[in-house]
Every structure is written in C-alpha cells, then in structure tokens.
Amino acid sequence: MFRKRTFFFIFITLALVLVGGGVINIHLDLRLLALTPKIFKYRGLIQKYAVKENLDARLVCALIVQESGFDEKARSAAGAQGLMQLMPTTAKELGVEDPLDAEQNIAGAARYLHTLYRAFSDSDDGHRHRLVLASYNGGIGRVRDAQALVRHRKNADPLLWEPVRGALSQLTKRHADMHREVWGSGMPPHGYFEGSDETIDYVARVMHYYGRIRFYRNVLFFL
C-alpha cells in the first residue's frame, strides 16, 4: 500500500510541475505516465530485442505506447495485432506465429525495425528515426515515393525528414500533374496516399513519447 501511495504521489507531483511549467503535452504525457507500470512489465523484453536488433529501447517503447498502449491483445480495425500492431501479412513474413504473444510480437517488430533502419542508413539519427517511423506506419514504399518527389525537385535533401514530410502529402490524386513529371505511369509507384496526415501525426506522437522517455529515463523507466 505504501509503495502504491508513493508512486501515486510522485506521479501527481511530476504531472503538476510539468504541466504548470508548460513542459509537457498534457494528453500525451499523462498517458505515458499512466502506462509506467506496463512499461516496467515489458521492459525486459524491450531491452532484450532492442539489443539484439541494435535498436534504441526507448524508441521501441515509445512506439508501443503509440501503437497499443501496451495492450498485448490489441486489434485494430485494419487487422493489426498485438503490442506493436503487426499486420497479419507482415507477421507471417517475419516468422511471427502468434502476434498476440508479447515476446513474439516484440521480436518480430524489432526485426522489421532493424530492416527499416538499414534502409535509411544514410540519414542522420534524428531524421532516420522519423523516416523509419513513417515507413512503419505508412509503408516504406510511400516514403520512397516521397523521397523521389523531393529528389526530382532538386531543391531539398531526400535524406531529411522535413522535405519528405511535405512530399508525403503530395502523393495524392490532386497532384497528378506533378506525378507525371516524375513517373511515366503518371502516378506514384506505390499508389496514391491519402493517409499522409495520419502518418505525419503518428511520427510526431512517437517522437514526443521518445523524448519524454529519454527525459524520465533515470526517474521512472530505466530504459
């Protein structure tokens, strides 16, 4: 009982101080703090597979916060499953037999993230994180198409997140004239992308959680 009261007191004190100081996003940060017990529960698995796949455990943790809120039985309307919301086809390709098993889910998603990080190895870490997250959410094909648009314009660097973020929103039918300049088919190789706003918001949320986990790491999470 004492430990629960102590944790609750620390939780409330941190929340009030940080909200009052304008340091946190109240919705995202309170959600993260509320998930602290679950982060502790899965911390060992996160660290195990982050080390195995040469990933930052704090970013893996942030991704799980966003994807499922640490609900290992989570299922999305699109069919994604488990802690890191693997789609059935992706899970099968990764050798994950049961996406609702926490260890299999984290292990498979970590392998997939490792592949994505290798795909963007020429980008600096801050941009690389965001390009990987956009690929995890919207598909690497869409990010590659956005990079092609940036490369075609020759006024920005396709290895940087900001120009790619802008180009993602131009992978829609409304920008068909631009597409004809880049691709002979007249449309992006991976099809039109109407979900760019969702993907951009997703990247921002995960990076916010990542930043907060790094900030709190020696106080709460020890990742």
What can be said about this structure in brief?
The protein is built from 11 helices and no strands. With 223 residues, the protein is mostly helical.
CATH topology: Lysozyme
**Residue-averaged pLDDT:** 90
As a percent range, the share of strand residues is under 5%
What proportion of the residues is helical, as a percent range? 55-70%
Radius of gyration: 19 Å
Count of helices?
Answer: 11
Structural class given helices, strands, pairing? mainly alpha
CATH top level assignment: Mainly Alpha
Tell me the span between the first and last alpha carbons.
Answer: 26 Å
**Number of spatially distinct domains:** 1
Unreliable stretches (pLDDT < 50, length at least 5) are none
Task: Tell me which oligomeric state these chains represent.
Answer: single chain
CATH architecture: Orthogonal Bundle
